[in-house]
Amino acid sequence: MDIVCIGEVLIDFISSNPGRGLAEVTSLEKFAGGAPANVAIGLAKLGIKVAFAGRVGDDPFGAFLMQYLNDRKVDTTFLKKDAQHKTRLAFVCLDASGERTFEFWEKEPADSAIEIGDFPEELRDNIKIVHFGSLALSAEKSRKAFEQISAHFENSTTLISFDPNYRKSLWRSDAEARTALCSFGSQAHIFKLAAEEALFLTKAVKLESAAQKLFNKKTKLVAITLGAQGCYLKTRRFHTVVPGFNVKTVDTTGCGDAFTAALLAKIIKTGLDIEGYTPEMLSDLGRYANAAGALVAGRRSGTASFPTDQEIIALTIQNQEKTEKG
Fold first, then answer.
1. What confidence score (pLDDT) does residue 235 get?
2. Of the N and C termini of the chain, which has fewer Cβ atoms inside 10 Å?
């Protein structure tokens, strides 16, 4: 297996009435969701061998999610059904520009009941990258499980990837969220965040300062998404802003996860020696990931809109030709 994604897989009920709050919404559509599960689906679509490890409830929603992942060539051997906890549900409202607000159901969902035993020894060997979601970090028990799993790779060649995916409503306080997310992030080699998350976690005013604060002894890459403006990438030797792509935004749901999937897929294909990347390699990495996010922003349907490698390459070539023509 190239990559294993760990964490939350859930049901997104997304509003079909943009611009309305949850109290005013009259129609909701069901989608598979959860950042690390979305990333796994994106990776599989890009030809990467990927597994998902975690828990869903032993309920109709859990059965739907397991089948959904299987149908999209994500290995679910280590996705367990939990009879004691329900599958997590999220209700998503969109404003007029396509930005989202979340309300989560289930106080103790199945994905937060994860234990160290859910990530068996056979999955820990010969993995190139292990990617962690973050919702389980808001619960003390699953936070410890994540820390135990992460500690297993202390002296291995496996890269640890982490997306904090901050959701305010899940945390008791901003201070608790900062402490837990920064602590876990300090163990990651690849730290991917949205711009607002980077500024929130570091209390910085500028992204360059935030990226510097997020860079720890183990960090090899900090990747900060900037929405339509692209992304900011920083390694120990170089940093760069990679411009985004001009697309008409339909729905931002899944954009960050598509970006992460493309980022990790490109690293797998380019080589795991991130510290040896040249500025050109770093820019290529950013363009590839930006293109994936842009393609999803211009579509609706969540993970069903995640792009193939051919679609990403086609967009980058098209953008380059436009740039050369002026």
1. 98
2. C
